[in-house]
Design a protein that fits this description.
With 177 residues, the protein is an alpha/beta fold. The chain has five helices and seven strands, in the order ααβαβαββαβββ. It has a single domain, classed as 3-Layer(aba) Sandwich (Rossmann fold).
């Protein structure tokens, strides 16, 4: 019985350490982890016409809510990039059961290949959005929709602004020209 308690305690400590390290990596990487609920993710995606020909990139994909919904409900190709170990592992486990392939990369958003995306979702702090702009301008194809949560893209005019979810989250939708 004592062995089981020691193992359980060890697993708990390991999980807490991984969570703490994840938060440190995220903050040092430029954006703290902030969760987007399933309900808010559903509502965001309902405002963006995704289909089986869509490729949604989630830059800073967290625990994978948007990716799973995009794949399950719309049949879209779903690709996520996450640098924090804890949310990455959670999303890896969750996407094993996502009715189709969800690609996950344990990598920085700056390593993402934006060239094949039809839609790019970004929930990062303004300084990260500003740093990401040159990459978007260089790699994203004309017509690609850029969806940001909470913070607008500097220097760009949104084609649509929304407020979604119980938390009254601001969503900005842009289109690459």
């Amino acid at each position: 019985m004592a062995i089981i308690l020691y193992i359980g305690f060890g697993v708990l400590l390991l999980g807490l350490a991984l969570w703490a390290v994840s938060n440190i990596i995220a903050v040092l990487g430029g954006s703290p982890p902030v969760h987007t609920s399933l309900a808010t993710s559903r509502e965001i995606l309902s405002k963006i016409p995704l289909n089986a020909k869509s490729t949604l990139l989630d830059l800073g994909s967290g625990t994978g809510n948007l990716l799973i919904i995009a794949r399950r409900k719309y049949g879209a190709r779903a690709v996520g990039y996450e640098l924090s170990p804890y949310p990455f592992l959670v999303s890896r486990l969750r996407t094993l059961f996502s009715h189709g392939t969800v690609k996950l990369y344990y990598a920085s958003v700056f390593e993402a290949d934006l060239s094949k995306a039809t839609d790019i979702f970004i929930y990062l702090l303004p300084k990260m959005l500003l740093a990401l702009l040159p990459k978007i301008k260089k790699e994203a194809r004309v017509g690609t929709k850029i969806i940001t949560r909470s913070f607008p893209l500097p220097e760009w005019q949104p084609i649509k602004k929304l407020t979604v979810g119980r938390e009254k989250t601001k969503i900005f939708i842009y289109q690459v020209k």
